[in-house]
Amino acid sequence: MSEETTTIEQQTEEQKPKVWKPRILGILCNWCSYAGxxxxxxxRLQYPPNVRxxxxxxxxxxxxxxxxxxxxxxxxxxxxxxxxxGDCHYAKGNYYARRRLMLLKKFLPSLGIEPERFHFEWVSxxxxxxxxxxxxxxxxxxxxxxPFSGVSVVQGVTQINTDAEDEHR
Amino acid sequence: xxxxxxxxxxxxxxxxxxxxxxxxxxxxxxxPNVVYSADYKYMCSDPGQNIVxxxxxxxxxxxxxxxxxxxxxxxxxxxxxxxxxxxNPYMVEMANLREHCSWVHDxxxxxxxxxxxxxxxxxxxxxxxxxxxxxxxxxxxxxxxIGGGIAGIQAALDIANAGYPVTLVERxxxxxxxxxxxxxxxxxxxxxxxxxxxxxxxCASNPNIQILSYSEVEDVSGxxxxxxxxxxxxxRSVNFEKCTGCGICYSKCPVRKIPNEFDEGIGDRRxxxxxxxxxxxxxPVIDRENCRWFKEEKCRACEKLCPSQAIEYDQExxxxxxxxxxxxxATGFKxxxxxxxxxxxxxKYKDVITSLQFERLTNASGPTEGKVARPxxxxxxxxxxxxxxxxxxxxxxxxxxxxxxxxxxxxxxxLLLKDKVHDANAYVFYxxxxxxxxxxxxxVKRTIEDYGATYLRGRVSRIFESDGKLIVRxxxxxxxxxxxxxxxxxxxxxxxxxxxxxKEMARKLGVSTDQHNWFTEAHPKxxxxxxxxxxxxxxxxxxxxxxxxxxxxQASGAASKVAVLFSKDEITSEPMIAYIQExxxxxxxxxASVCPFTAIDMVEVTDPRTKKPKMVAxxxxxxxHGCGTCAAACRSQSAxxxxxxxxxxxxxxxxxxxxxxxx
Lengths: 169, 663
Prior knowledge:
The complex is a heterodimer. Chain A is an alpha/beta fold.
């Protein structure tokens, strides 16, 4: 955990006896991932209460603008979840999402945003467990990363981009 | 100003146990534009819905937020509810306080905070909700059935009997399809012709059915209820009206020895022909590639002999344009070309045949009139080996999938062989016996136990000729020994595969195919006969290997879908679809190129400012499914999605930005 995080933690602790927790925006497609999140609910799976979910018809609907806006307004992490390849309710909206959002992820370091703060994953309607895991993992990752400092140093951009590509191939 | 009402549901104790619903409702009451808030034990119940309706009237609410379960569960309920209070049904947003909050957290304070945030987002979104209206579109009550096999025949008959006109398009000169080629059908051993040909005749005599044989679908445009289909009616060279089907032309045609496609190449036909005697329509076709008149400008024997002057050499292809409301795709399958497995010697040895060829050999109306005779010398074979899974379940040569019907027809053919040639030996090599239908397992058992067919579990590695016999070398994996059989004939159960032009047909129809080119249904379990494209349905083996009972069931299913569609006089289109703000549209086509449903057309309009014509995108409400891919792609934000506008989603994000202390 970085020094900066500790400072902020101390600050908040003074005001409120509460540990700093990241804020995550989740944008979920209606047919698979939102239903997967519903399934996590009906299966009573527990996950950290750090995510707020916006429902969209398809991951193809996700305008990169939303993600930039979320970071701009102080969210520490953004998740976009869509149907697995081949499962899209609209046949191929998720493929467009993948192309757009992978490009967006590459672009984030140029804005001083760590690419790890953005995560794109396939979650089907039957994958309540995976949904809960994704939220838990993302929360953990952002806790380690600390609060969003607005502008950070661009480091190891090439390295990160290659990793991101592999992950979603 | 918007007047929003927020209603928080306890869901018994489901939400109330983990979320302080009273506090949530109270805080939500202070959100921008919220003029009323309340909580209740069961908001979806009758009294709960009445609370909402009464509050709408009393407090003049113009939009509503319900904090309860998932919108996937109760959104329609609350849409109807507020519709009952004279609000537009789309002026409601739901905050998912149960599945996404109370059920997944165990910290009451945090869950309450999250619930409040979810309500905050819903309030921010509902503030910019616009009333939405369903639109009515016209509907042409005529169905197109593509493919005249048993699937197409059944679908056409069912739709026609429901009272709607049908155009049945078949590529070959006669309807009937593969089923017409078969001898008997498993497991009842009904003669295929006896159960199929009456249906073919029904099709021809049904006043609601127009059969276009020797025709192909050239192009499909439009959308559900309003397709425009171009059909190429190929030149038959025989006048349909004049021909009486007497058959003199093809009995006298001098061009013989053309392998008959219907007999899988083991029988002959003439240059003018009907594929089989029971053909419907019973009107011959001149095969222009082989006819002496078309090749050498000689002969004209059929014209001279035809008693009704029906021969017309100068006929040309006709393109018909039909208005169609729904399309049933029943294009069927073909069998895999197993020459890829060189070890089985197909093409090299005349007596290595396919199951479909064996079907013609045992068929009473086939080239041998039902006598089992091997193709090389016409002798009755004493030992016949049947090979399963030739190209099926074989990723190295063919396909990974199971063709589903081969186990059964292998058993049937072995049984028929033993029935016709009593002292013949029938050997069946199999991987697993998949007999999963009504009476199927019993049928296989009968073939083995009562008819004495020998089943060997294992695969064949090689077939070669030696001393006029075909040596089949394989393994019996149950006994653990290599096996060598001296056979007179070998029958290969080749895999079923999609038609060669399935991909092209899918493109014409705007439907998708899987990696093998089988058509893809809208949902494998809950929408197995529908395509993702509205108004297009699948029947039979064009979707995946199927036997006759399944095909007929699916065809009737597709037909009933068409009948349901046609039972209404108009089509109601979903209101949550895309639209284009034409004033800012630059006509870049980007939206049209990403649309998965080809729902966006380019049209020319007059720019109201410059008074000059310009190209803009326009969404076809009948085709658009409302995915919003176009809205995300548009560079000028001219493509928009009703119900999920950029402003609404951004408002949800902004609403949360007010919370600065972290979750």
